[in-house]
Amino acid sequence: MLLRQLQALLAGLYDAPAEQDVNDYLITDAAHAAVLQGAERPPTDEQLLIAESDGQLEIGLYVDASVLERLASRCPLRRLTEDNLADYCTALEGVSHFHYVVWSVARDRSVSLLELELQAEVDKYASALRLTLEQRDGRFPAELFHRLFDRTGFLPHLTGTERSRYEEAHRFAARFCRRLEDRFLRPRRARPEAMLAELRTFYRLGRHAKLRHAAQWG
To answer: Phi-psi bin for 125: left (phi > 0), alpha (psi -120 to 50), beta?
Structure first.
């Protein structure tokens, strides 16, 4: 149920209705995910699996069972803290990838890997911000940006191309999200409705437009 709730959170945040239920495509068994990838084991605890056959897109989302078990005992929808933030980001990233691909395909839009990672970085920040504001009675979580963008690392097994893509997505998302805070969330001039409109506009931009938009805000 948690992944379905996270998908509903993103769908509501971006006014992008969920046209496919993420739970119907969920894989939690590492061995099964590894077979589908032709590998000994999945490289990460979360991965969107996509294949094209006879013009049809086949899709699955792997989120390791251990991640979901930990989140079940420390539900981020009730309280998002340092203790469950990493697992939350793992699950949310997978849901973000799934939802954005499904939403885009339904509109005959192609999606690049860089675009997918950039949107997921923004989704983690925007969704965590919404949850913490709700859970703290509207008090702004000043530490959130630092935690998501300054205290992160990249997996050591990434290829040079993969690392470059993740770093670029992270860098552009950080620029965009920092400007969201500065422009819409500072005390005495907070404009949450305008921030929501900006997030929804960004969601609908294609790869190159997203990068240009984030760069302009940097």
So the answer is: alpha
Count CB neighbours of 93 within 10 A.
22
Q: Is residue 78 classed exposed, middle or buried when 0-12, 13-18 and 19+ CB atoms within 10 A define those classes?
A: exposed
DSSP 13-57: HHT---SS-GGGGEE--HHHHHHHHTSSS-SSSEEEEEEEETTEE
Closest C-alpha among 62, 86, 63, 83 to residue 73: 83
CA distance 189 to 84: 31
pTM above 0.85, yes or no: yes
Residues 6+ apart with CB under 8 A from 80: 88, 128, 131, 132, 135
- 54-96 pLDDT per residue, tens: 778 889 999 999 999 999 999 999 999 999 999 999 999 999 9
Q: How far apart are CA 200 and CA 215, in angstroms?
A: 17
- The amino acid that residue 105 corresponds to is V
Domain boundaries, the chain: 2-216
Secondary structure (3-state) at 106: coil
Cβ count within 10 A of residue 9: 19
CB contact set of 42 (below 8 Å; sequence gap of 6+) = 30, 33, 34, 62, 64
